[in-house]
Write a structure and sequence with these properties.
single chain; 143 residues; mainly alpha; 7 helices
Amino acid sequence: METAFTPWSALAGGAMIGLAAVFLMALHGRILGATGILGGLLRFNDPADWRLRAALVLGMALGPLVYLLATGHSPAIDLPIPTYAVVLGGLFVGIGASFGGGCPSGHGVCGIARFSRRSLLATPIFMATAFATVFILRHVVGV
């Protein structure tokens, strides 16, 4: 299976994630870690914090709708694996994020920018695991 790399859309997406992280830190003093923000929705002890988390998750979920309104067509989502594998992978990422004290967006985008030692260690581990997973799935398993 060949993957089409689209550098301009990847650059634009990365820039938007970076800007969102900067704005969240500047306006609310919070670090943009998507898994931590999503996990915090399960706690209702601080209504203002819950509303902020809900707004961030809603904004992430509405991204495809904004794309549809801006371009006139839905973003193409072509998954070479079954839906259950995507869900299972998401659960693994969530569990790993709780053990690792943060998710790839929190460590990779915000933690490295703050020179966090934990993030400087965690991010290369995330990346090595991702590279190994892709290699095994494509060249050993043959997905």
